[in-house]
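Handout, page 2. Input:
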Amino acid sequence: MFNKKKERLYISELIDGEPAIAYPSYYVLSSKMMKNEMLHYALIALHSLDLEHYQHPTSYEDIFAMFSGGVYPIYKEMYVVGYFGGKMMYLDSGGWRGVPCTEDVFKMENWLVC
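Output:
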């Protein structure tokens, strides 16, 4: 079976100077995701805490509209979230992980959309 090569995207490559949120300092991504400018925008916003273009959604439609538009919402001001293969995923330093379905996922105040 063919394993796709993963690369590290360092936050220092995206942000000039010191990031407001230094951890994680890198994310493991596929080469396709490494080139995704919308993902870069969300990571820059998250790590610089420049969330002026983000707001709390009014409904779940706002979150899924971002997914279908190729944009990444932010969850709890800690994670960038994507929707792949019918599954909601959050990005951590090791790559994309499935979002655990807890009560917090359903609270609109935990999400930021743009």
